[in-house]
Each structure stands twice: as structure tokens, then as C-alpha cells.
Write a structure and sequence with these properties.
Blueprint: E1 5-11, H1 15-26, E2 33-39, H2 46-56, E3 60-64, H3 69-80, E4 85-88, E5 94-95, H4 99-109, E6 114-121, E7 136-139, H5 141-151, E8 158-161, H6 162-165, H7 178-186, E9 193-203, H8 222-237, H9 242-264, H10 276-288, H11 295-304, H12 307-325
Parallel strand pairs: 1-2, 1-4, 2-3, 6-9
Antiparallel strand pairs: 4-8, 5-9, 6-8, 7-9
Length: 328
């Protein structure tokens, strides 16, 4: 058995990083790949670079399209993908040369819907030698949800069976953390997953133009909607699971505090001029926490906290919560 893996790469304004990304896919030890490069109207030379790769490797297909954003580019790739399994790689990141060999081996032998790996940030790269005996865990639906919550909903660390996602698309009106909405939409379809605790994806922290590193802006507002979406999914699929529901409540509280603090600092006074988003945040907070129902108490706490302290609290609190309460 030698299934085809379709690897979809959405590309926009990453000329500096594109060769490293595509080379890491071409050089995979697993060769039965269909590599789909989607040039999303990139303003630099990415389109030319894609065409050059297509001439050199007959596994590569290139799409040139008007700009649709990350979700739209991924959907375009999905529309022509023919593989038995689907993978995604972001064009400023890169992957370990054994990634797809490892993932396809485990997804096929375990008969899973998804194979999930770990990742490492580019500024934390150590020895490139992989652990020869990594931790491997079979996950049920609940286990996959915990894995998402613990390690992130990032689609680039997951290999999907084509059957699982054949009717699912990325929401093109979501131009930030779209992976969360996609993951929440498919969780109920997953019967079995497998997690291989190896850092097979390298997340590039050097690309300062990335949406995830562009400072507090209206795109960041979507993080609240994403957490609400995950909470609704958990309530629908796991209504009796107190640990999951408590965990997502805590995450929503922390996310609300982050937004309230950021808006209070008025880094950009044009972000929420009519106060609609602030009101949504407060309502969401009060649904998940009763201590701050008093508006004056809420204002006092938000003023006392400063953003660096809040970020520190956010990271430490949820790391502790994950370790104590959340099975991986």
C-alpha cells in the first residue's frame, strides 16, 4: 500500500522563505506526493518561483488565483487534490524530511482518521535527530479534542484522511486562526486519531509579516469567536464532560481579559469605536465567570493588570491547567 498524500501550500508574500518550505516537501523520504502550490496573488516573486518548481518536479501543480486569503487558498488546493490523505504546510514554515513517512505509516496501520504530530518553533531548534522511540497514543474523539486544546488546532501538524474532510471547507470570511474553526467543524466526524509526539513541523517565528505576529488589531478579535465556537462544539458533543467544559470556560475567561486589557490600553483607538466588541467580550466573560458581574470591579481589575503581566498570567495559568486537568 502506497497511498498518495496531497500537500497543499497557500502562498502569499513569502519569497524569502518559500524555497526552504517547498524543498522540505520535495525532499520528503515519502515520495508518493501530490504537491499543490497555491499562489494567492502574491505581490513578490512567489508566482515565478512556483512555476520554476513545477517545471522541475512532475509531482507539483500550481494554482495562480486572485487573492482570497489563507482559507481561500487552502480551499482552492482542496478543490483539485486527488490524494488519499491531505496535508497542509504554511509557506513560511518547513517540515522534517521524515514527516509524511511517519504520519502515513501511523495513520494507515492504526486505521485512523487523523495522524497528529508535534512541532517546534524555529528559534528553539535543537538536535535534528528524532527520537527513535517516541510516545504514540491512539485517541478517541475526546482525546483528539484534548490534543487540539493542549497543542493547538494547527492544520499543518495533522494528516487527514480524504474521506474525513471531503465535505468540509475553511471559512473564507475568517482571515485569522481559521484552523480553530476548521478543527471544530470536523471533530464530530473523527472516530479515531493517533498522536505521534515528535516535532515534525518547524514553525517559523522570524516572519514578522505573519498575521499571528502583527500586533493587536481587529483580526485578533476573531480569537474570541474561535473560543466561543470551540465551547459550543464541546457543549454539543461532550455536554456531560466537566473537565472539558471547565477548561474551555477558563480559556474564554483568559481570552476576555486579554481583549479587555488590550482595548483599555488604547493601542489603537480606532479598533472598537462604537464599543460593540467590548460589549461582546463583557457578555462572554460574565457568562463564564461570576466574580466580575459588577462593572466597577471589572474595570478595577483591568486597570490594575498591565499587558505583560496578563500575558505572563495567561501562559502560566493555562500551562498549569493543562498539566493538572487535561489528558493529552
Amino acid at each position: 500500500m502506497n497511498p498518495v498524500i496531497s500537500v497543499i501550500v497557500p502562498i502569499y508574500n513569502v519569497e524569502k522563505y518559500l524555497n526552504r518550505c517547498v524543498d522540505s516537501i520535495i525532499n520528503q523520504t515519502y515520495k508518493n506526493l501530490e504537491i499543490i502550490l497555491v499562489n494567492d496573488e502574491s505581490p513578490d516573486n512567489c508566482g515565478v518561483i512556483c512555476d520554476e518548481y513545477e517545471k522541475k518536479d512532475n509531482r507539483i501543480r500550481v494554482i495562480h488565483q486572485q487573492n482570497k486569503g489563507l482559507s481561500g487558498a487552502r480551499n482552492s488546493g482542496l478543490s483539485i487534490a486527488t490524494g488519499d490523505y491531505i496535508g497542509f504546510v504554511d509557506s513560511d514554515d518547513w517540515i522534517h524530511d521524515e514527516m509524511y513517512e511517519i504520519l502515513v505509516k501511523h495513520i494507515t496501520t492504526s486505521k485512523s482518521d487523523v495522524a497528529i504530530c508535534n512541532f517546534v518553533e524555529s528559534d528553539s531548534l535543537g538536535n535534528s535527530t528524532l527520537d527513535s522511540n517516541p510516545e504514540v497514543r491512539i485517541l478517541d474523539k475526546k482525546g483528539v479534542m484534548w490534543n487540539y486544546l493542549n497543542y493547538g488546532f494547527y492544520v499543518w501538524r495533522i494528516l487527514y484522511s480524504r474521506e474525513l474532510i471531503k465535505e468540509i471547507q475553511f471559512e473564507e470570511d475568517k482571515r485569522f486562526i481559521e484552523d480553530v474553526f476548521f478543527g471544530a467543524n470536523i471533530i464530530d466526524k473523527i472516530k479515531r486519531g493517533i498522536f505521534i509526539d515528535l516535532p515534525l513541523c518547524i514553525y517559523n517565528v522570524d516572519n514578522v509579516s505573519s498575521l499571528t505576529r502583527s500586533g493587536y488589531n481587529k483580526n485578533i478579535f476573531l480569537s474570541l469567536d474561535a473560543n466561543i465556537c470551540v465551547q459550543k462544539t464541546i457543549n454539543q458533543i461532550f455536554p456531560e464532560d466537566k473537565e472539558l467544559n471547565h477548561f474551555i470556560q477558563n480559556r474564554l475567561v483568559g481570552n476576555c481579559l486579554f481583549h479587555l486589557q488590550s482595548l483599555h490600553l488604547k493601542e489603537n483607538e480606532d479598533l472598537d469605536t462604537n464599543g460593540v466588541f467590548r460589549k461582546k467580550v463583557k457578555n462572554t466573560f460574565n457568562k463564564n465567570h461570576t466574580f466580575f458581574r459588577s462593572n466597577n470591579a471589572l474595570k478595577t481589575v483591568v486597570r490594575v493588570l498591565n499587558l505583560p503581566m496578563l500575558k505572563y498570567f495567561y501562559k502560566i495559568y493555562f500551562l498549569k491547567n493543562r498539566q493538572l486537568n487535561a489528558p493529552s
